[in-house]
Design brief:
By secondary structure, this protein is an alpha/beta fold.
Length: 217
């Protein structure tokens, strides 16, 4: 089993200390910086937008993994690429023309991510799996950090891993929500590649050490 790629979510960071928080991540074993964008429409919360993403990117030495929890993402993806996004995930449930969204991400030259809510059947990704670089599988209902991990996720990761294998695709599986050192080994055993962790990292006494521990599960 390979070691996970770690994507700390800065939603849980101290926004009054963006520079220091990003420098901490630069000095850590984090592989990506996960950026959560919430619009108050697709999800019942508002986080931050394009200028704040650019501010994180200003100091970041790791690629920005931008998770768009917004309706009509096609209107904004180009701006997020300009703000530094290297991977962009749009939500399956927010995109009636998902194939077109994926084409747009390809044309912009960024990693193509699709995020799926806990109720969305895995099978719905089959016909597009070759066009998806990363599935961001939600292990909580999107909208807030610090929520409880949904146990059904293990089964869903295994289902998605099986689907990817059956289709001969290279899609990576990212898990987002409530990840900690208790569930990380089980998620990796089920077939995950990338772990997002927000509150578990930023509420820790020693975030750099916590990232190292997640990396070594
Ligand atoms: C939830 C976000 C997550 C969240 C993760 O809507 O997409 O990325 O910030 O935070 P924790 O790890 O605290 O659940
Ligand atoms: Zn996220």
């Amino acid at each position: 089993m390979a070691s996970p790629l770690i994507a700390p979510s800065v939603l849980a960071s101290d926004f009054s200390r963006i520079k220091e928080e990003v420098e901490m991540l630069n000095a850590s074993q984090a592989d990506y910086i996960h950026i959560d964008i919430m619009d108050g429409v697709f999800v019942p919360n508002i986080s931050f937008g394009i200028p704040v993403t650019a501010a994180f990117n200003k100091y970041a030495q790791k690629p920005l993994d931008v998770h768009l929890m917004i309706v009509q993402p096609e209107k904004y993806v180009e701006d997020f690429v300009k703000a530094g996004a290297k991977i962009i995930s749009v939500h399956y449930e927010a995109c009636p023309h998902l194939h077109r969204n994926l084409q747009q991400l390809k044309d912009l030259g960024v990693g193509r991510g699709v995020a799926i809510n806990p109720h969305t059947p895995i099978e719905h990704l089959r016909d597009l799996i070759h066009d998806i670089d990363m599935v961001c599988m939600m292990s909580v209902n999107p909208g807030f950090g610090g929520q409880k991990f949904i146990e059904k996720t293990y089964d869903r990761v295994a289902q998605l891993r099986k689907l990817i294998k059956e289709e001969g695709a290279a899609t990576k599986i990212e898990i987002d929500g409530g990840v900690n050192l208790n569930n990380a080994p089980k998620l990796m055993a089920a077939g995950a590649d990338i772990l997002v962790a927000g509150s578990f990292v930023f509420n820790a006494k020693d975030p750099i050490d916590t990232i190292a521990q997640l990396k070594s599960v």
